[in-house]
Design brief:
The chain is mainly α. It contains seven helices and two strands, in the order H-H-H-H-H-H-H-E-E.
Length: 180
């Protein structure tokens, strides 16, 4: 799983110029109004809207990572960029290998880019919070939903990719999308 830092693509955003020209007294050190800071703020706001407590706990971490990325870029320049790019590529390779070898499934990135880049980091954060006892009733509901999805996936693998899907009125659709 990619780290939150990689998923937000902060490493690319810190190289951008100021989106909104602001006077120096309005700029927080290491959080200039560039694409990286704007992305971190947008992610933070959307995560808070999705799950207020979990999002509010994650927001300082996102902004802190962004401030650190801005600091590294301004201090080390191209060297920081090369390291960030290397970590980014290694993370994506690990994700594809992990999904292919250990799960036998393609990564969510190939199905839904928003889910992979926006929701997956928050899902990982929720798993961390669940580990520490956050909202056990929500964890139970999610675990049940995941088990149902895994069972459906295993059943579809057992019938093969060319298996039929029931439509509901006695009709089924084969693997080629043709109704029978």
């Amino acid at each position: 799983m990619n780290s939150l830092f990689d998923s937000m693509q902060v490493d690319k955003g810190t190289n951008s110029p100021s989106i909104i020209p602001l006077p120096d007294y309005l700029i927080v050190k290491n959080l200039p109004p560039n694409a990286g800071t704007t992305s971190a703020l947008l992610y933070s706001i959307l995560y808070i809207l999705m799950e207020p407590v979990a999002g509010a706990l994650l927001a300082p971490l996102l902004l802190g990572a962004t401030a650190y990325a801005n600091h590294l870029t301004s201090t080390y320049g191209a060297t920081a960029n090369y390291w960030a790019l290397g970590v980014h590529i290694a993370s994506w390779l690990a994700q594809f290998i992990g999904h292919g070898v250990y799960e036998g499934r393609k990564p969510a990135l190939l199905d839904n880019l928003v889910q992979a880049v926006f929701l997956a980091p928050f899902f990982v954060w929720m798993e961390v919070l669940f580990f520490f006892g956050y909202r056990p009733e929500l964890k139970g509901r999610l675990d049940e939903a995941v088990e149902r999805e895994v069972a459906k996936y295993k059943a579809s693998r057992a019938t093969g990719s060319r298996g039929s899907k029931a439509v509901g009125n006695g009709t089924s659709i084969n693997g080629n999308g043709v109704a029978k």
